[in-house]
Write a structure and sequence with these properties.
Helix content is 74%, strand content 0%. By secondary structure, it is mostly helical. The radius of gyration is 20 Å and the shape is elongated. The mean pLDDT is 79.
């Protein structure tokens, strides 16, 4: 809980609770959603799952590099293509989820989204992706 309270405080010393509440009802509901601990925990779980998938993808690609010396059969080519397609799909799905997180935070927090350095890091990673 203390870690979460420290994380809630932005780098400029402004707490999420100190942001002015949006006047629009829809913005206010989104603000409450993105300010909740449950939302942050869900995002952290998604990040963890994404990291695990990337590690598995790297291990599989390393094994492919080691087996290049062996003659490749038609079955292994199909398996590699299917695995590459599956990894690409999961990467795009996670990217869409993280873009959705960013958009929700932008709607709910408005200009205060840019006061938190973690949000800026998320924005940079999404743009690079």
């Amino acid at each position: 809980k203390q870690w979460y309270q420290r994380r809630v405080r932005g780098q400029k010393g402004v707490k999420k609770e100190d942001y002015p509440m949006p006047n629009n009802v829809k913005q206010y509901n989104i603000y409450r959603l993105v300010s909740s601990m449950a939302f942050d925990l869900i995002i952290m779980v998604l990040i963890f799952i994404n990291v695990v998938i990337v590690i598995v993808e790297l291990c599989v690609s390393r094994e492919k590099c080691e087996t290049v010396i062996d003659p490749i059969t038609e079955v292994s080519k199909r398996q590699e293509t299917t695995m590459n397609f599956a990894f690409a799909c999961t990467n795009y799905c996670f990217l869409v989820l993280f873009i959705l997180e960013m958009v929700l935070k932008l709607i709910g927090q408005r200009k205060y989204y840019f006061y938190n350095k973690w949000n800026l890091l998320d924005l940079a990673i999404i743009i690079i992706s």
